[in-house]
Amino acid sequence: MEYARESLKDGDLMVVVLPDHGTRYLAKIYNDAWMKDHGFLESRDFATARDIIQTKNGSDRLLTIDKNIKVGEAVRKLTKEGISQIPVTDGDQIVGSLVDSRMLSHLIENPEIKDHPVSEVMDPPFKFVALDNTLDTLSSLIDKENKALLVRDEHNGVHIITQADLLLAMTT
């Protein structure tokens, strides 16, 4: 009211919103079952990153490639392992990522790049996510720019989650 007295002129309109404390809605909007029944919340439970890595038996070792390895050698490793993306390391640190489609673009542009170190063509590292991130969140993080996600388990082991893992989780 003080603001209105000091700032408003004759003919100005001020709207005051007075929220209540929600006790009349406790049985509805603060009730997850009611919200799900009326379509305001998802009714299905989503798998988590933890579920996905446990489905892989939690024992898959993370394949990585050193940043000093030649691009040609990296392509051979991706092909041999049947994978399309891989984290790039410098010692114990993840410093980048390689994706086959982007390496193909680099090689078409300059075939001599096959003899250069991976560090010259690598992309930024894949994003890390929490173990409790759900499938809907994980799927929103994988896109053209970020082809995979990394997650640390309870023992500090790093695992990769790819589009193929998300598809499998959605269909099982």
Strand content: 15-25%
Give me the CATH architecture, please.
Roll
Q: Number of DSSP helices?
A: 7
Identify the CATH homologous superfamily. Answer: CBS-domain
What spatial order of strands do you see in the largest sheet? 1-2-3
Q: What do we call the CATH topology?
A: CBS-domain
> What integer is the average pLDDT?
86
Radius of gyration: 25 Å
Q: How many domains make up the 3D coordinates? A: 1
Question: What about the largest sheet?
Answer: 3 strands, mixed
Envelope shape: elongated
* Overall helicity: 25-40%
Please report the total strand number as a whole number: 6
Poorly predicted regions: none
Class from helix and strand fractions: alpha/beta
> Helix and strand succession?
HHHEHEEHEHEEH
Short description:
The chain is an alpha/beta fold. The chain is built from seven helices and six strands. It has helices spanning 2-7, 32-37, 49-55, 71-81, 100-109, 135-141, 163-171, and strands spanning 65-66, 85-90, 93-99, 127-129, 148-152, 158-162.
Please explain how this structure is put together:
This protein is α/β, with parallel strands linked by helices. The chain has one domain (49-171): CBS-domain (Roll), CATH 3.10.580.10. The protein is built from seven helices and six strands; from the N terminus they run αααβαββαβαββα. The chain has helices at residues 2-7, 32-37, 49-55, 71-81, 100-109, 135-141, 163-171, and strands at residues 65-66, 85-90, 93-99, 127-129, 148-152, 158-162. The radius of gyration is 25 Å and the shape is elongated. The mean pLDDT is 86.
